[in-house]
Every structure is written in structure tokens, then in C-alpha cells.
Amino acid sequence: MFSTFCVLLVCAQLHFLFSIFTVGLALQSWLNRIWSSTALTQPSYSSLLVPVALGIYWNTTQFYIFYNTGLTSSKYILILKYLLDILILVASLALNRLLIHNILRQVKVVITRRSTYCLGMAALSIGLASFYYFPYAFDNAQLSWTQYLIKPQISFWASNNYGQIGYSSLIYYIGYLFDYIPLTTVSSAFKPALFILILLCCFYTFEQIRYKPLWLFSALYFFILFFSAFGQWGAFVTGKPSIYGVILSIVFFASFLKPFEEVKFNEVYLYFSVAAFSGIITIPYMAMFSLFVFFTSAEKNILTRKFRNLIVVAFFPLFVAASYATSLSTIRLQLVC
């Protein structure tokens, strides 16, 4: 049993590393090729967060299409999913070799910083301890719905639950691979990746406001989050899907902490979209924050155009959220009637 749990843990991290981060790097090379303005000019924690966000966007879109075309029930779903990921990676290596090299060079600079790998090991250790002491995720309707897609006989949640579909796209494939293990346990294997994501959010936040030393403020913020109810109950114990959305929404908020002329709106659009995919609960908060930024800024003409672009880029996650809300309203109406 212990060896099975170890294999599950390793497979979950490899899935995140390949299907989220590595495929995200490949997608970033295409983004840089089409829009050169999206290329990062200097090493920063955006070089780690942007690929993660792109990978989440790709996996969520892919999963949504698979689900709506009935492919999630196919016995070849894992082959199809990883074949598409490999094709994107191979095409990027063949056609965007120089762009990939530049992206990897920036990634190397960031991850070889002493603060990154030291605090990264601490975050990884916390994630491993979380999986060891609490090898489950619960308080989680999204998980129940995803479990229904894998084994409907052990889950009652048959209705469309798009609230955190980004979370479903993360855990579904490993859950399908280990279908003999309840998905509540399989999903907890992603807790190490979750704590790494929380740490990257902390680094990114203080990098934006340029507090020095960066490692100290990032470490303080990380442990404040960890010892709060958010970290203890939300991440360490339950591993709730909405935690992913909240973390990505914090990254969205932090994008505006630098001087206005330095804000990279292409990243703002991306972080908003993946936060909406990962937790529908974050959408009203991000919308309210966007209104606050708009009405308190002296650059309203520029922001009008930028937020119009945001709506266009985030149309798909907003559409998915609206579909979920409509579905939920229909279910409640049926229960009332």
C-alpha cells in the first residue's frame, strides 16, 4: 500500500510538471512568436507563473472539450490527452527552438537562486507532510462531480459542476489512471504542487512591489498564509479546489502593484482567466478589484481599452462560469418545484 501511495505521489508531480508546466512553456513560445510583446525581457517569477497559468488554461480547455464531446468516458482518453500534449511540445521544439531556449534560460536563472530552491524545498516538504498526514481532499463538490465522471457508481454528483473545472482538469487524468483509488485520495497527491504554487505567488507579490530582501518578505508572507486558516484548513488539511483559484487571483491582484506603465496586461488577462477557471468564487472579487483600479486610476482611457481586451480574453472562462451558474439555478428550481 505504501509503495502504491509513493507511485501515486510521483505520478501526480510528473503530471503537473509535464502537462501543466512543460506544456505551458511550449505554449509560451508560441505566444512569444505570435505576439513578441508578450516575451519576458528579464528573469522574474513570471517566468515560472506564466507557463503554469498557460498550462492550466490549456488543460482546462482541453478537458472541457473532452467532456462536452463525450471523450472523457473513452478508454483511450489518457492516450489522446498525452498525445496532444506531446505534439504541442514537439512542434514547439521543432519550430520555436530559439524562443524555448530563451525561456528556459530565464527559468534557470530564477530556480537556481538560493532563495527559490531553499524555500521551494520547504514548501515541497510541507506539501509532502500534508499528503502523508491528510491523504485526502474533502469539502469539495467539484471532486464529487469529477469522481462521477470516472466511477459513477461511487458518486452521486451527476449534474454539471463547472465551478472549479480547472481543478477537475488537473485531477481527472491521474484519477482515471488510478481509478481503483478514491479520487479524494488521488487529488491530495497534488498538495506538494499546491504549496509550490503558493510560494511562487508570495515571491511574485513582493517582486512586484520590489521589497528587499525578496526572500525574507516572501518567506514571511508564505508562513503567514500557511499558519492562517487559509493555509492550515484550506490547503494543508482539505486541499480545497477553491484554494487554487484564490492563489491565482492573488497573483492577478499583485500584477497591479507595480507602477501603471510597467503593468503587463497580457499577464493580467491570463491570471484572471485561470483564476476564474480554478474557482468561480474568485470572479466577483476580481471584478470588484478591477472596478476599484479603474475608478481610482488617472489612466481611465487606457484602462477602458485594456479591460475590454480582458473581457475578450477571459470570455471562455466567464462563459463556463455562466454555464455553471445557469445549471445550478436550474437544479435549485427543480428542487423547489
Task: Describe the 3D structure.
The protein is an all-alpha fold. 77% of the residues lie in helices and 0% in strands. The chain is built from 16 helices and no strands. The protein has one domain (2-336). The protein starts with a helix and ends with a helix. Residues 328-337 have low confidence and may be disordered. The longest helix has 33 residues, at 2-34.
Write the layout of secondary structure elements.
Blueprint: H1 2-34, H2 46-68, H3 77-95, H4 97-111, H5 114-133, H6 141-150, H7 165-177, H8 183-186, H9 191-209, H10 214-227, H11 229-237, H12 241-254, H13 265-278, H14 282-296, H15 300-313, H16 315-336
- Counting helices, strands and paired strands, the structural category is mainly alpha
Overall geometry: globular
Mean of residue pLDDT values: 89
Supply Rg: 20 Å
Helix content: over 70%
Q: What pattern of helices and strands is seen along the backbone?
A: HHHHHHHHHHHHHHHH
Instruction: Please report which band the strand proportion falls in: under 5%, 5-15%, 15-25%, 25-35%, 35-45% or over 45%.
Output: under 5%
Counting DSSP E segments of at least 2 residues, the number of strands comes to 0
Tally of individual helices: 16
Unreliable runs:
328-337
Distance between the termini: 47 Å
Q: How many domains make up the 3D coordinates?
A: 1
